[in-house]
Every structure is written in structure tokens, then in C-alpha cells.
Design goal:
This protein has 112 residues and is of the alpha+beta class. The chain has one domain: Ribosomal protein L30/L7 (Ribosomal Protein L30, Chain: A, 2-Layer Sandwich), CATH 3.30.1390. Helix content is 34%, strand content 18%. The protein contains 4 helices and 5 strands, in the order E-H-E-H-E-H-E-E-H. It has helices at residues 15-24, 40-48, 60-70, 104-111; strands spanning 2-6, 31-35, 53-57, 75-77, 99-100. It is globular and about 35 Å long. The two termini are 17 Å apart. The mean pLDDT is 89.
């Protein structure tokens, strides 16, 4: 299971990327969505919108905690992480918060 969190807001987002984020269900900052990792369409959408969200694989415990917040759906609004995001304009490789992460569980634990 992959979790994607919208990091950046709605201002000045290109139309194509905004449509992708809308399709994923991420309309506001700090929203999280759970998607299946074996779906190529979801993988493509995440890569396309990587400059506006953070995503990565999560373990079953984190999925359970998110499901408690979402109820029946796959989308939940979370609080900003304690301690804040590192940098909301740079990729994880450059010391920021955006893109594919290996420590997605850690970020979500700070937001729950």
C-alpha cells in the first residue's frame, strides 16, 4: 500500500497536475490518500505530481491508523507534522519533503 500526502497548496498549480491531484482526491494541503502499489495508473499519477506531494510505501500499522481516521474512504485530512516539513520546494534527495520517500511511515506518524 502506498500513501500520498499533499504538501503544497493550490496556488499556481499547472492545470494538468491539478487535474491529476483532483483525480487522486488530494484537494487540500495535508490530505493523505491510500492507493494500491500494483496499479500502473496510480504510479504514473504519483510520478506526475511528485513536485506537490510526498509518497511512499507504508506498513500495515500505519494503514490501520489512517483507516481509523478515514472510516470507509481512502482520503483523510491530517494535521501538519510536528516539527514541520523540512522544505516544501525541494525533493527528498535535495533535503526537502517532496517526492518518493523511503521513510513515509515516519512522516505519517508525525501527522497523526
Amino acid at each position: 500500500m502506498i500513501a500520498a500526502v499533499r504538501i503544497r497548496g493550490q496556488v499556481d498549480v499547472p492545470d494538468k497536475i491539478n487535474a491529476t491531484l483532483q483525480t487522486l482526491g488530494l484537494t487540500k494541503k495535508n490530505q493523505v490518500v491510500l492507493v494500491e502499489d500494483d496499479n500502473d495508473a496510480h504510479q504514473g499519477m504519483l510520478k506526475k505530481a511528485k513536485d506537490y506531494l510526498a509518497y511512499g510505501e507504508v506498513n500495515d500499522d500505519t494503514v490501520e491508523k489512517i483507516r481509523e481516521k478515514t472510516g470507509e474512504g481512502n482520503i483523510a485530512s491530517l494535521a501538519p507534522p510536528s516539527g514541520g516539513f523540512k522544505d516544501t520546494r525541494r525533493n527528498v534527495n535535495e533535503g526537502g519533503a517532496l517526492g518518493k520517500r523511503g521513510d513515509m511511515d515516519e512522516l505519517l506518524q508525525k501527522m497523526l
